[in-house]
# Entry
Amino acid sequence: MDKQFRALSDPTRREILRLLRGGPLTSGVIAESFPSAWATVSRHLAVLREADLVVAERDGQTIRYELNTSVVQDVLRHLADWVQPTAVPSRRRARAREQRA
Amino acid sequence: MTIVAGFARRDRGLVGVGFLVGGIAFPWLPGPYLPEASLVTVVALAFFLPTTALATCVGQAVFGVRTDDEPSRASAGVIATATTALCSFALILQVLVLTTLVDAPIRWPAPARAGMVLLGLHLVVVGNVIPRLRPDAQLGVAVQMTDCRRHAWMRTYRTAGYLCVVIGVTVAIAGASLGAAQIDAVLKIVLLSASVCVSWSLRRVWTA
# Structure
């Protein structure tokens, strides 16, 4: 539970979870949705994977990440967003959506 | 391909306690057949008939044996949680029914209400983990739409999980506070709304 709270406490990781609600994404697409370095996003993904909030599946050369949250974890994520609003601008979400399409 | 039995030790313990409770309570159950029955019959009936834990065992025999090369192995945690929730629910319900039937010194304030609240809590626990269930041939509703598209399955089961939790909370609150007629009406409305929501979610994902 500690790992899950720790994972949900970071706005970038919550944003990653929000992106994954639209469907599974590769690590490359997720990394492109954030201004941070690829290694930073990769570390965030590792924390989420360790907390069992996402699952990773190897698909050839790429790794696909898929949401693995329960209802309570989703509610906690919403609650964390509400208590501590994220500073990630919405156009990043739109760009990620375009890339998925 | 390796066969994996998914019956955890704690679940075996719960089912065992269920049988024990059934066996102890059986001789005191109301019924005209007991005085004439032989000891073997009484023991056999005590072991099989009054135990809802038996139903859990049958369910486990159907769903518990899985193969480890299935994609469903990713949702092993979901199956373990759902099995434990089912075993606990069956056991508590059995204790509730038997203590009421044999007129035991333990008095529940309102057994029917307690049963409804238990059912609600069970739905909350199972609904909470439903979104983590991966496409599966044994568990879940594998229709053509969900089988063809993994994304359709995941989205539909996420919606179903939320609805199951909402239904569970509604059933628990209704069971604790409303009368039988109102509970019936509330359940009909909630179940109808839930089926409409799941169908709508499935259709929306499919047509996207």
